[in-house]
Design goal:
The protein has 19 helices and 27 strands. By secondary structure, the protein is α/β, with parallel strands linked by helices. Helix 3 crosses helix 8, helix 8 crosses helix 9 and helix 13 packs across helix 16.
Length: 556
């Protein structure tokens, strides 16, 4: 009887013994977590193991089941999946840190003054800059090079327009390519005034000079990549789609990632030169956890701001001018057929309604018998009414801040009727079911919060226009967050590994200082990233204001 009693006691004690907790790498609790899963569920906590989300749920469930030496108390702050910028120029952003920043300049005189000040500090043999926009100036005509020639008679200077589709060069730079008033190139324009060179080269004409510019080295590429990474982590970006990379740049990116130096994830669109097409179509898709090389970037036309976008009818503010086809229709057709016979994706820059019309028809023809190819049109900026339905199987990759940057002059270019089909993100969403959202930085600011604000409020930072710009094409907050996360991941064939906070996916997430899903529209651009994580590892933390500094600011 005693033995039976002892056995019962032992069984009772064993059954009451607390179940051992599972050891994980990190636990996050007390979060206001938007998982962005298929039902857009919210959660309070999650556990991370081996760089991936192991379980997501309530505080009590996670804390009872798991333990870790690293427990992050989010203190009620909002957590969302790491942002994915579906269209940007990551390497270009890095190089911009080594050149003259001309964004916001109000005249060509101010542009030249900025270059003079930059050169005094840096004393370079070749000078580059980016960011001027004649649409922001009192004189909205393209500038001319005389002032640049006077200040820099011997040092080559190339200054890129904000959209990258036009440059102004001084004579020393033009001399590198032996550019003269008779120079011609398909898909580009050498701008003359009174029969003389202005120094402005549009679209493909840029190559007349840039093909003779000193080439970047692996060292300069590495420096640019790391500079861009710092900026992106600060803005909550964990994956970036770089729209147009050389083979050399891709190989530098891969080497830095393999060495665990470059930690941001990248979706690489390979510049669709003949050499790159030959190499990568033969090599095949290249994929690691950090780098995905499975698409080609093609240019269909130029930009609307420089009147290079290819339109079906002439520009409203320049009769007789239709824009530029930077790649001919036969060439685009040939490239599309080559890519269609591979597993690669074709992502084509198309701004004007004519370029979009042509591309949609080419895509439809070559993909007729193919499924789940996810080919993309980058920008999809001006669409003819009957062409929206053609996006059913083509992903629109759009940049909401273009709408709020261009709204001041877009109607002048397009006219009252045609502009209704421009920046039509809600119409594109209805046609396809998804939109991939990006910034096109450094054409626009890196901040995803400006993207979010432009998509939802359709206003500039001064709340203009009061009622919002063509609000019938605004996106909801849920649609916008999806466009910056899971839909962007889908556009990259990566929706099973990122884009939402779900079991088995990479633990890429960010903690915000405000709840972007409920705050007033005016507050959205002010949102700050408190922390950025990749694989559950902290990559960025917003610096804390020193107490002494805070005290001094309070006094002031």
């Amino acid at each position: 009887m005693k033995n039976i009693l002892s056995l019962v006691i032992l069984i009772t004690l064993f059954s009451c013994k607390k179940e051992e907790k599972i050891q994980v790498d990190t636990i996050v609790i007390n979060g206001n977590i938007y998982t962005v899963n298929s039902t857009f569920d919210k959660a309070q906590a999650f556990a991370i193991k081996d760089g991936k989300f192991l379980e997501i749920g309530r505080n009590s469930d996670i804390q009872e089941k798991y333990e870790s030496h690293s427990v992050i108390d989010a203190d009620g702050q909002t957590i969302v999946p790491g942002f994915i910028d579906a269209h940007c120029h990551f390497l270009g952003l890095g190089f911009n840190q080594q050149s003259v920043n001309l964004v916001g300049t109000k005249s060509f005189e101010e542009v030249v003054d900025s270059v003079v000040a930059f050169q005094k500090r840096n004393k370079l043999d070749y000078i580059t800059g980016r960011g001027w926009d004649q649409n922001d100036w009192l004189d909205k005509d393209f500038p001319s090079k005389e002032l640049l020639d006077a200040k820099f008679p011997n040092t080559p200077v190339v200054l890129t327009r904000i959209d990258g589709h036009a440059i102004i060069c001084n004579q020393a730079a033009l001399n590198l390519g032996k550019v003269n008033k008779d120079s011609k190139i398909e898909g580009g324009e050498v701008v003359l005034k009174d029969g003389k060179l202005t120094g402005v080269l549009i679209d493909n004409a840029e190559t007349l000079v840039m093909d003779h510019w000193p080439k970047e080295t692996p060292e300069s590429i590495s420096k640019a990549l790391l500079a861009a990474q710092d900026i992106c982590f600060e803005n909550g970006l964990t994956t970036v789609d770089d729209a147009g990379l050389s083979r050399e740049a891709i190989e530098v990116i891969d080497s830095l990632q393999q060495a665990n130096i470059l930690k941001i994830r990248m979706y690489a669109m390979v510049s669709a030169t003949k050499e790159n097409l030959d190499y990568y179509l033969n090599k095949g898709i290249y994929k690691t956890d950090y780098l995905n090389v499975r698409s080609f970037k093609v240019y269909g036309d130029g930009a609307l701001g420089s009147r290079g976008a290819l339109l079906r009818k002439p520009y409203s503010d320049q009769p007789g001018h239709f824009g530029l086809a930077t790649t001919s229709i036969p060439t685009m057709d040939s490239i599309a057929h080559r890519i269609a016979n591979s597993k690669f994706q074709m992502n084509t820059h198309a701004i004007g309604d004519s370029a979009n019309h042509a591309l949609l028809n080419i895509y439809s023809k070559v993909l007729k018998d193919k499924t789940d190819r996810r080919w993309r049109i980058e920008h999809a900026q001006v669409i003819s009414p009957k062409d929206f339905e053609k996006f059913k199987n083509i992903i629109p990759s759009v940049q909401p801040t273009h709408a709020t940057s261009d709204m001041y002059w877009a109607e002048e270019r397009l006219g009252k009727e045609r502009v209704k089909g421009a920046y039509a993100y809600q119409q594109l969403l209805k046609a396809n079911g998804k939109v991939a959202l990006g910034t096109d930085f450094p054409v626009e600011h890196v901040s995803p919060f400006l993207t979010f604000h432009s998509a939802v409020a359709r206003q500039d930072l001064e709340d203009y226009p009061l009622e919002g710009y063509q609000m019938e094409n605004a996106l909801s907050r849920e649609e916008t967050l999806k466009g910056m996360t899971i839909w962007a991941a889908y556009a990259n064939f990566e929706e099973n590994e990122k884009g939402s906070i779900e079991v088995g996916k990479f633990a890429d997430f960010i903690i915000l200082d405000k709840n972007i899903m409920v705050i007033d529209n005016k507050e959205i651009p002010k949102v700050k990233v408190l922390k950025t994580f990749i694989n559950g590892v902290l990559q960025y933390e917003m610096p804390k204001v020193e107490e002494s500094q805070a005290s001094e600011e309070t006094k002031n």
